[in-house]
Amino acid sequence: MTSPIIATGLARYFGSKDEPIKAVDGVDLEVKEGEIFGFLGPNGAGKSTTVRMLTTLLRPSAGQAFVAGYDIVKDADKVRRSIGVALQDAAIDPLMTGNELLELQAVLYGIPANQMKKRADELLERVGLTAAADRRVGTYSGGMRRRLDLALSLIHQPTVLFLDEPTTGLDPMSRLTLWEEVKRLNSEGTTVLLTTQYLEEADQLADRIAIIDHGKIVCEGTPRDLKAQVGAPTLLITVATHLSDTATQVLKEFGDMRPTAEGTLGVGLNAGVEAVTDVVRRLDEAGIRVQHLELNEPSLDDVFAEATGYRLEGAKQ
């Protein structure tokens, strides 16, 4: 078994046996050694539940998975010792300092005392928290806490790292800082499974992505290949509300309609960029005044829309 994460038919149900809620419904997944794998989907799609199963925090209702070569049910303790985990809702004691938390984490993983201080200092430096090492975590900003959480997950030098929506709620600068650290970790050989609801994050970081919706994986591949499958660029227009139906009929002459935000119409231009002039001319002939026009090359948002039938909330963040 060469891949550090392999899941087959992984499922997790909640509620009664008669009417179970299928949070994760038969996920097949393989994350290859040394890659960043993006797990993309909206809130409630099953991303975090899948991660909690793979990290042994939830027992699967069905299916099987191996992480770092160990069965997540039969060898749960060995899995935990082989992985690093930074969860979205991780609880960090606000009364302890960064140094104290790292040293406590080192003790829990059985790291010898003579290595503990050196390892903690190295991690604080690499996540940019050396100056705040002796401050109580309650005084840290949101970005500082997420970077400390990342350092805590790395104390035992895991070969597989799980990051569950690591940049949710962070400002743009903190988000970029965390992205750079994830890239650096990966360049040093760490395999990363990253869950996110941000399309840009998946596009920037992931070697491959899987899109999950309602507990099922609906498409998988490299960002480039998935965008290429969408093919045609998307033309977005805004017209007066009472003209939407007429405009839709005109747009359908040039390609398939695509899911868009409310108040906007979108069409995949089968003839490419060159068709924009013809579209505008036809709309004008139909007596439709265009209030706004925008042409977008295929994006992960288009991939998501093609696979699920709707746009991902927060796609532009």
Q: Can you tell me about this structure?
A:
The chain is α/β, with parallel strands linked by helices. The protein is built from eleven helices and 13 strands. A six-stranded mixed β-sheet has the order 6-7-8-3-9-10, sandwiched between helices. Strands 2-1-4-5 form a four-stranded antiparallel β-sheet, with helices on one face. Helix 3 packs across helix 4. The longest helix is centred in the middle third of the chain and has 16 residues. It is elongated. It starts with a strand and ends in a 9-residue tail after the last helix. The relative contact order is 0.13. The model has no long low-confidence stretch (mean pLDDT 90).
Produce the secondary structure layout.
Blueprint: E1 5-14, E2 21-31, E3 36-40, H1 47-54, E4 62-67, E5 70-71, H2 76-82, E6 83-86, H3 98-108, H4 113-126, H5 142-153, E7 160-164, H6 172-187, E8 191-196, H7 199-205, E9 208-213, E10 216-221, H8 223-230, E11 234-238, H9 244-251, E12 265-268, H10 276-285, E13 292-296, H11 300-308
Parallel strand pairs: 3-8, 3-9, 6-7, 7-8
Antiparallel strand pairs: 1-2, 1-4, 4-5, 9-10, 11-12, 11-13
Helix pairs in contact: 3-4, 8-11
